[in-house]
Design goal:
The complex is a heterodimer of chains A (313) and B (463).
Chain A: H1 21-39, E1 43-46, H2 51-64, E2 72-77, H3 83-95, E3 100-104, H4 105-110, H5 127-136, E4 141-143, E5 160-163, E6 191-194, H6 202-212, E7 223-230, E8 233-236, E9 250-255, E10 268-269, H7 275-284, H8 289-293, H9 303-310
Parallel strand pairs in A: 1-2, 1-4, 2-3, 4-6
Antiparallel strand pairs in A: 5-6, 7-8, 7-9, 9-10
Chain B: H1 3-7, E1 12-19, H2 26-36, H3 42-54, H4 70-75, E2 82-87, E3 91-97, H5 104-112, E4 117-123, H6 130-141, E5 146-152, H7 161-177, E6 182-187, H8 211-217, H9 223-226, E7 230-237, E8 260-264, E9 269-271, E10 275-279, E11 283-291, E12 299-301, E13 305-310, E14 321-324, E15 332-341, E16 347-348, E17 352-357, E18 360-374, E19 384-386, E20 390-391, E21 396-407, E22 420-424, E23 431-437
Parallel strand pairs in B: 1-3, 1-4, 4-5, 5-6
Antiparallel strand pairs in B: 2-3, 7-8, 7-14, 8-13, 9-12, 10-11, 10-14, 11-13, 15-21, 15-23, 16-20, 17-18, 17-22, 18-19, 18-21, 22-23
Classes of the chains: A alpha/beta (313), B alpha+beta (463).
């Protein structure tokens, strides 16, 4: 039924040598993903097309091969997503043979369930559609691509993070997580957020993308784009983020380190067009990934912590 | 595991836990490790400098790098285990930063359960304190392979060799009494940066490694690699028809009727053709294949996630453990264990709980509490088991637990993964306790009939 040739079994050159960093991280993530599939009634994986979620989907596909991924993927579309990323999302879902469900922030705004914020940012508006999708879909486990190295509120996040009926995170009420015995028991109405990439750093993610030859949306690599300097960050000129009066529009070679909403995700100047060049750049860059590019985390000193408590990832 | 991964980076992963009491300068040490390995990027550092200035400090307070939640910043304390990441060209480090005071045992047990190394801090002016003994007892009970004592604030005792030697000697004695074998001591000033990442010229009498040097060089072969093969089955892979996955490097190994068992090798290694036993039933069979999307493997080793196929058509399911035929753990109806109690609710004899072990979960009743570890020690004292009829939050006890269905639980001293289990509240799902099966490494005060020898567990003979 296939024309692919079978590869010959390989012996590890030195079976007593510890696994490499990437091998160990991959094995840990796959173990977590399998635990969830085996012990929850209805898991779902968040998928935005961003690099962390692509790596997570790739790991899910590997975890169950040669069977298909036994759960669906969910995207909360803010309506301000980069078109390149949305196209990629659909291609990636088809490539990995997953089922995609999309909930739209725009629908919520159009029928009045949500209102546009004065600052125009839509990331904070994702929480309500996400929580309703979780309730309506009766999902009891929700995979997210969050990493503990991203932000200090996340440094204390568990791999299995219990959320109450309101989707809230209570840092004082988290379960101790011992060995690799993950406790996903929960009461009706509660659900568990699961972070298989908890122990990965930004550099690990890129190293893995390079090693596994994982495809990403094109905007992760350097391209020319019209941008303005705003608040110390390079913001793209798009239909939802036009230049303000007096702002000088420049054509720059840029790429994105994270692909959130267009209204709050900034580009960084870059000439990196390959994974290796990105790795060099990330390794040398003197700004953290969120600090460089996320206006939503700058809202207040505890911005991420507040959004986590409310049920954002 | 794919070919690309096996041949790309050879950097390895080392997991460490830090522990110390309040004001030992742990946050400063961790901040210093992050800072001096260039793991702090400029925006984070700007933030720390701003906050330091606001507090009226004349230099960046590196302890602020590890500040976490708002409540912690407001109260100037750390509440929960925080995970930090730093790397050098040879190793990546995952650091579980365990706070010193609130719920100290709970946090240290959590951080230590996966640690290869514990970094223990003391203040050079105070030497070993009660917390040091507690943390070292936890390191011993959890079988953390290596313990390094950082004698911090050495600048405040004028870099005194005598002070350092006295503490190091006390520590070696204590470690021996607790059965901790691999220890090392380093004189450090985290504030000044002496011997953290760069070698200090102010401690010419010390010729050992810096903290980072130690962490880069310590043997990182997991103890699990040398133990017998254990493979808890997580998930049965049984596609209706083998999928043609466009992203996978190899085709499904068998067309049609594929049945594979997904899991992580928890210890030892296994080779195609090996005879194995499926527990708890005890059926013998052979390993027919080891599959990964990157291609089949000849051998799988500890910590690898793989799919195995067995040569006979057994009814294997989640919760079973595939094990080496040499000295497999006997399925137990009743297990004796050292238990760290992590819940506010007290444990009393007769408590009904759930036991989660490997990939199985079963009902259980706590039949007996045989003692609690007395850690409130006079200086120089050794932790000792004392009679107790209950365990409170942060207590460590010896318990006997009856299991509703038999579980093949190993001796924790040889199998950290399959010798461990957790107790879970059957009603609200809370994690109540962390248990290590079999004899304890701390024997002082145990009545002689309770001092278990190796042969008591699983009916195995002494090795």
């Amino acid at each position: 039924m296939t024309t692919q040739t079978r590869t010959r079994p390989r012996a590890r050159p030195d079976a007593l040598r510890p696994l490499s960093e990437l091998e160990a991280l991959e094995a840990e993530s796959i173990h977590i993903i399998r635990e969830v599939a085996a012990t929850f009634a209805k898991p779902v994986m968040l998928f935005s097309g961003g690099k962390d979620s692509v790596v997570m989907l790739h790991l899910a596909a590997k975890a169950f091969w040669p069977a298909p991924i036994p759960f669906g993927v969910l995207h909360v579309d803010t309506g301000h997503n980069f078109p390149e990323v949305l196209q990629f999302r659909d291609e990636a879902v088809a490539f990995y043979g997953a089922r995609l469900q999309v909930v739209s922030v725009q629908d919520y705004i159009d029928d009045g369930r949500l209102h546009e914020r004065p600052d125009g940012q839509r990331n904070p508006l994702q929480t309500v559609p996400l929580l309703e999708a979780i309730t309506d879909g009766r999902y009891d486990a929700v995979f997210g691509g969050g990493r503990r190295d991203e932000e200090r509120a996340r440094a204390k996040e568990r791999v299995f993070s219990l959320r109450d009926e309101f989707g809230q995170w209570e840092p004082r009420n988290q379960r101790p997580e011992l060995w690799s015995l993950y406790n996903g028991r929960h009461l009706p109405g509660e659900h568990v957020r699961v972070f298989p990439l908890s122990n990965w750093t930004e550099l690990d993610v890129w190293d893995y993308i390079g090693a596994e030859k994982i495809f990403l949306p094109s905007i992760y690599y350097a391209h020319e784009r019209e941008v303005v300097r705003r608040d110390g960050m390079w913001m793209a000129i798009t239909p939802v983020t036009p230049a303000a009066g007096g702002e000088q529009v420049e054509l720059k070679s840029v790429r994105y380190r994270t692909v959130g909403d267009m209204s709050c995700t900034a580009a960084v100047l870059s000439t990196a067009i390959t994974v290796a060049e990105v790795i060099t750049e990330v390794g040398l860059s003197s700004l953290t990934e969120r600090g460089a590019t996320r206006a939503d985390d700058r809202l207040s000193e505890a911005a991420m912590e507040d959004r986590k408590r409310e049920g954002y990832f | 595991m794919s070919a690309t991964l096996a041949t790309s980076s050879r950097r390895t992963l080392l997991r460490l836990a830090t522990a110390g009491s309040v004001d030992d300068g742990k946050s400063t040490l961790v901040g210093r490790l992050l800072f001096d390995t260039n793991s702090v990027l400029s925006d984070t550092l700007d933030h720390v400098e701003q906050v330091s200035r606001r507090k009226g400090l004349d230099r960046a307070d590196l302890a602020l790098l590890t500040d976490g939640l708002r409540a912690e910043r407001e109260q100037g304390i750390t509440i929960d285990v925080a995970y930090r990441y730093f790397a050098t060209p040879v190793r990546k480090f995952i650091l579980a930063d365990c706070p010193g005071h609130v719920q100290y045992t709970r946090n240290t047990v959590t951080g230590s359960s996966t640690a290869d190394v514990i970094v223990l801090l003391v203040d050079a002016r105070n030497g070993l304190v009660e917390q040091t003994r507690r943390h070292l007892a936890v390191a011993s009970l959890l079988r953390v392979p290596h313990v390094v004592l950082v004698v911090n604030k050495i600048d405040l005792v004028d870099y005194s060799e005598d002070m350092f030697t006295r503490i190091a000697t006390d520590f070696a004695l204590l470690a021996r009494s607790l059965g901790v074998r691999d220890t090392h001591c380093i004189p450090v000033s985290a504030l000044e940066g002496d011997n953290v990442v760069t070698r200090s010229h102010r401690t010419p009498w010390y010729d050992g490694p810096t903290v980072l040097g130690y962490l880069e060089a310590v043997d990182d072969t997991p103890i699990s690699v040398g133990s017998e093969f254990r493979f808890p089955v997580q998930y049965v892979i049984r596609p209706q028809s083998a999928q043609l996955a466009p992203w996978a490097a190899s085709a499904p190994p068998v067309d049609g009727d594929y049945r594979g068992y997904a899991g992580k090798v928890e210890s030892g290694r296994v080779r195609v053709g090996d005879e194995v036993v499926v527990l708890p039933r005890g059926s013998h069979t052979l390993i027919e294949g080891i599959d990964t999307p990157g291609g089949p493997l000849e051998v799988a080793v500890a910590d690898q996630s793989v799919v195995i196929r067995l040569s006979t058509d057994l009814d294997v399911s989640r919760g079973d453990i595939v094990a080496a035929t040499d000295a497999p753990p006997a399925p137990l109806r009743e297990v004796t264990a050292t238990l760290c109690w992590l819940a506010e609710r007290e444990l009393e004899v007769g408590a009904r709980v759930l036991v989660q072990h490997g990939t199985s979960i079963t009902k259980a009743i706590v039949k007996a509490i045989e003692g609690a570890l007395d850690l409130d020690l006079a200086p120089g004292g050794t932790p000792t088991w004392v009679p107790s009829d209950r365990l409170r939050l942060n207590d460590i006890g010896r318990v006997r637990v009856a299991l509703a269905s038999p579980l093949p639980i190993d001796d924790y001293r040889e199998h950290r993964a399959t010798g461990a289990f957790i107790l879970v509240d059957a009603e609200d799902g809370r994690t109540l306790g962390a248990a290590m099966a079999g004899p304890t490494s701390i024997t002082a005060g145990l009545p002689s009939h309770l001092v278990h020898t190796k042969s008591d567990h699983n009916g195995r003979g002494p090795s």
